């Protein structure tokens, strides 16, 4: 695994996570049109974050197992660890939104 492909893997995780976290940042509430209702945004975005980090970690694990080069496999396992850390942080921060 070269540096360029490692950057592609990282961007495949960082861009969706950044977007989904940015969407969940609290904004000043404005009056709701139509009498209000329950906002499903935090629930949906939190579950998307969970699914993306899990899927990305599984894909990096599969890539790590399939690499024949030991250095590439080691880098893929490092990427997998980054995905697991991201998953853990997402669970700690957004656990209230998941139910």
Could you outline the blueprint of secondary structure elements for this entry?
Elements: H1 3-24, H2 41-66, H3 70-94
In words, what does this structure look like?
- The chain has one domain.
- The model has no long low-confidence stretch (mean pLDDT 87).
- The chain has 99 residues and is an all-alpha fold.
- The protein is elongated, with a radius of gyration of 17 Å.
- The chain is 74% helix and 0% strand.
- The chain has three helices and no strands.
Principal-axis shape equals: elongated
Terminus-to-terminus distance: 39 Å
Which parts are unreliable, with pLDDT below 50 for 5 consecutive residues or more? none
| Chain-averaged pLDDT | 87
Largest sheet: none
The H-and-E topology, N to C, reads as HHH
Strand residue percentage: under 5%
Number of helices: 3
**Relative helix content:** over 70%
Tell me how many strands there are.
0
Number of domains: 1
Give the tags.
mainly alpha; elongated; 99 residues
In a nutshell, what does this entry contain?
74% of the residues lie in helices and 0% in strands.
